[in-house]
Specification:
Elements (H helix, E strand, L loop, with lengths): L4 H24 L6 H7 L4 H6 L4 H18 L5 H12 L3 H13 L6 H26 L9 H21 L5 H15 L3
Length: 191
């Protein structure tokens, strides 16, 4: 059912802003995109745009949340392969990797709006990947002694580190390196 009234219109407008911001940052890059440009793209003033988010940092965190939703909607197949596919797709949108890396660094400050987002992202992501790894371990696809929580944490850390390095040297094949690490890590205990 369609949302009606001012509240529904506000939600719809916020969604339009997020879609435009996601597209613009993906195409132009985080550092090359200003709030003024985003506001102009959706026919608002900067103040009008920020009214929907509170601050530019909260807008950018909302963009990352939208990117996560989009990534998860496109996930197919077993957890490690799906994770690698997300990283492979991310390489096609360097502006969003740039945004993520900047917000990740800023999130070290507990007062920054990205702090809670990053904590939640890592907690939920690590729990989900660890659960998938436990199932793989149970079925014999992974070594019995594999620390699934540790493996999930390391996999996220490796992926995020590779993305930061990729921004400096785009010749790095992030997905291939993740696959290589995964193969070595998971077969080490089976030798």
């Amino acid at each position: 059912m369609a949302k009606r009234g001012p509240y529904g219109k506000g939600i719809e407008r916020r969604e339009q802003i997020l879609d435009a911001a996601l597209r613009t940052i993906a195409e132009r890059g985080y550092l090359a995109t200003s709030v003024a440009e985003l506001a102009e793209a959706v026919g608002l003033s900067q103040g009008g745009l920020l009214h929907y988010f509170g601050s530019k940092e909260e807008l950018f965190v909302a963009v990352l949340r939208r990117r996560d939703e989009t990534d998860l909607a496109g996930v197919h197949g077993p957890a490690p392969a799906a994770f690698v596919d997300i990283v492979r797709r991310n390489a096609t949108v360097p502006g969003l990797i740039e945004l993520f890396t900047h917000m990740q660094a800023a999130a070290a400050d507990p007062r920054h709006p990205a702090h809670d987002y990053m904590l939640e992202r890592y907690q939920l992501g690590t729990e989900g990947l660890s659960l998938a790894l436990r199932e793989m371990r149970r079925t014999g696809s992974l070594p019995e002694d594999l620390d699934t929580d540790g493996a999930a944490t390391m996999f996220f850390a490796l992926a995020d580190g590779l993305q930061a390095r990729w921004l400096i040297d785009p010749s790095i094949d992030m997905a291939a390196l993740l696959e290589q690490w995964w193969d070595r890590y998971t077969t080490a205990g089976q030798r």
